[in-house]
Design brief:
Chain lengths: 182, 109
């Protein structure tokens, strides 16, 4: 049964990923990104990562993709992608490079380079159901400083995006004034 | 169900790692091939997700929650990156009509 779920989800993941790369229309690309994220969430669930799977759906498949779709609709770039053609040599080089990277990664993984003993943490398959406790224990002890720093980074991100959005309006206003004065 | 169990292989961690590698490469090639900055962004998300899958797979293999905790940091970084990146794209689009990577060549030497 695990194999069936894995292969169906893997097909979903790869179809979504190829859709993102191949669809000309950005909206279709964003929607296949959703499909890919949902299939990844299934794979997470299958590997005892309940909390991560739910967060994946809430943050990635919902929030981030809605942001993408919002910007696509806002800018109206869903029609124009005329310049995407050409660059044949570049494309061939990219594909060759991709195959080389794939061979490299698979070669490394095939050599079983993963070794060592797990750090001490609560077992993932908690008999009480779910592994929220195990993840939370690690997150709020070993990674507490990283957690705090990440919260600062998020605040900086919010402020940064607000500043970017505002400043460009000021520039537009200044330009308009210039045009009027000229 | 018995027949199904016989013909399907046991899913080991290597299957997940192989899938993650494939997804990473698809994202990387898409990043190089596409010129629309929004789709290039989506390809970055694909690559980040492939890495997340690797983290979760290793967490399961080693029965250790650290891998899953790190996925949260990747998620937060991805969210912040999307917020800033899309703000930059909107800012660029306001100044010049077009968001393909070929339009943004002012820093090219």
């Amino acid at each position: 049964m695990e194999a069936v779920v894995f292969f169906v989800a893997a097909a979903g993941v790869l179809a979504g990923a190829l859709g993102v790369v191949l669809f000309r229309h950005p909206v279709y690309a964003a929607l296949s990104l959703v499909g890919s994220m949902l299939a990844i969430a299934v794979l997470f669930l299958q590997q005892d990562a309940d909390l991560v799977a739910i967060v994946q759906i809430v943050v990635y498949a919902s929030a981030i993709t809605v942001l993408f779709l919002f910007v696509i609709m806002l800018l109206g770039v869903d029609r124009s992608e005329a310049r995407d053609t050409g660059h044949l040599f570049q494309r061939a080089a990219a594909v060759v490079l991709g195959v080389a990277v794939l061979v490299g990664i698979v070669g490394i993984v095939g050599n079983k380079w993963v070794a060592g003993t797990p750090a001490s943490s609560a077992p993932l398959d908690d008999p009480r159901g779910g592994n929220v406790r195990a993840v939370a224990e690690v997150l709020f002890t070993d990674y507490i400083w990283a957690f705090e720093v990440v919260s600062v980074m998020l605040v900086i991100g919010v402020v940064g995006s607000v500043v970017l959005a505002r400043r460009s309006r000021q520039i537009a206003a200044a330009r308009q004034r210039e045009e009027v004065s000229v | 169900m018995g027949l199904l169990a016989e013909i399907t292989p046991d899913i080991t961690a290597n299957y997940y790692l192989g899938l993650a590698a494939l997804m990473f490469v698809v994202g990387g090639v898409g990043m190089l091939v596409r010129r629309n900055t929004l789709i290039m962004f989506m390809c970055v998300e694909l690559m980040l997700n492939a890495v997340n899958l690797t983290f979760v797979t290793f967490a399961k293999t080693m029965n250790d929650a650290h891998g899953q905790a790190i996925v949260f940091f990747t998620l937060v970084v991805a969210a912040a990156e999307v917020a800033i990146g899309l703000a930059i794209i909107v800012a660029i689009f306001r100044r010049r009509q077009g968001v393909t990577a070929d339009d943004i060549d002012q820093l090219a030497g």
